[in-house]
């Protein structure tokens, strides 16, 4: 009798623990509201090089930025649109365009640092940036 009672108690504890964890996880997902923070799915560009990532989550929920700090002056609200522009390059970023409007080493980490924070498909990246020809050959033409 005593034994089965303690098994029951342990069972209840385990069950409520799992239930609480599930409730917490659900809350964490619910807390990201796309109307408030922008789309949850990362935006990935494959032009001119593969693959650069942008996440609304880091910028809005994370860094507290408003939509209009990027839309529509720096970026249209259309995933992939900027990759159609000839000037979507590091040079433009270094000159304060696109991501470089903030990633200048003051508002946010500089665009010439932490390459792999933005470039997630990074193999061959050193080779690409070291050779203008290699970059050219990898372009959209
Ligand atoms: C730090 C810059 C930044 C901020 C702040 C920002 N966005 Fe964006 N957003 C982007 C970029 C970059 C893109 C992709 C544009 C491109 O590829 O040219 C984008 C694209 C989008 C898209 C299109 C997604 C798709 O799948 O086509 C929507 C919708 C959007 N943003 C909504 C928002 C909303 C709503 C907010 C404010 C809550 C917001 N954004 C704040 C940078 C930002
Ligand atoms: C309006 C300002 C603004 C623009 C535009 C902007 N960012 Fe950011 N970004 C920030 C701030 C602020 C942070 C957080 C501070 C930091 O990491 O230096 C940040 C952080 C990041 C991080 C680090 C996330 C982390 O926590 O590890 C990445 C990666 C990033 N941005 C990529 C991009 C890319 C790619 C673009 C262009 C498509 C872009 N950002 C455009 C302001 C901006
Ligand atoms: C803040 C985000 C960010 C950081 C940091 C960053 N890049 Fe980029 N990079 C981009 C974006 C956005 C593009 C254009 C989209 C694409 O090519 O997919 C790009 C494109 C490029 C390109 C192709 C276009 C060109 O300029 O020739 C090269 C090469 C490149 N990056 C190298 C680097 C290297 C090397 C570093 C580090 C020294 C670096 N990037 C750091 C965001 C970043």
3D architecture notes:
The protein has 141 residues and is mainly alpha-helical. It is 44% helix and 4% strand. It contains seven helices and two strands. The chain has helices spanning 2-31, 34-37, 56-62, 90-94, 115-118, 125-130, 132-137, and strands spanning 43-45, 52-54. The radius of gyration is 23 Å and the shape is elongated. The protein starts with a helix and ends with a helix. Bound molecules: heme C (HEC) (3 copies). One heme C (HEC) binds at residues 52, 54, 58-59, 63, 65, 69-70, 74, 98-99, 101-103, 107-109, 117-118.
Essential attributes:
141 residues; mainly alpha; Cytochrome C3; 2 domains; 44% helix; binds heme C; Cyt_c7-like; C(7)-type cytochrome triheme protein; Multihaem_cyt_sf; signal; Nanowire_3heme
In short:
Keywords: Signal. The chain is mainly alpha-helical.
CATH architecture of the largest domain: Alpha-Beta Complex
What is the CATH class of the largest domain?
Answer: Alpha Beta
Radius of gyration: 23 Å
- Main beta sheet, described? 2 strands, antiparallel
Strand content: under 5%
Q: Could you say what the CATH topology of the largest domain is called?
A: Cytochrome C3
What ligand species are in this complex? heme C
Give the ordered list of helices and strands.
HHEEHHHHH
Distance separating the two termini: 79 Å
Poorly predicted residue ranges? 124-141
If you average the pLDDT, what whole number results?
81
Question: Which secondary-structure class do the elements indicate?
Answer: mainly alpha
How many individual helices? 7
The side-by-side strand order for the widest beta sheet comes to 1-2
**Dominant shape:** elongated
Oligomer: single chain
Q: What is the CATH superfamily classification of the largest domain?
A: Cytochrome C3
Q: What is the β-strand count?
A: 2
How many independent structural domains?
A: 2
Protein name: C(7)-type cytochrome triheme protein
Domain Cytochrome c7-like: 52-119
Keywords: Signal
Signal peptide: 1-22
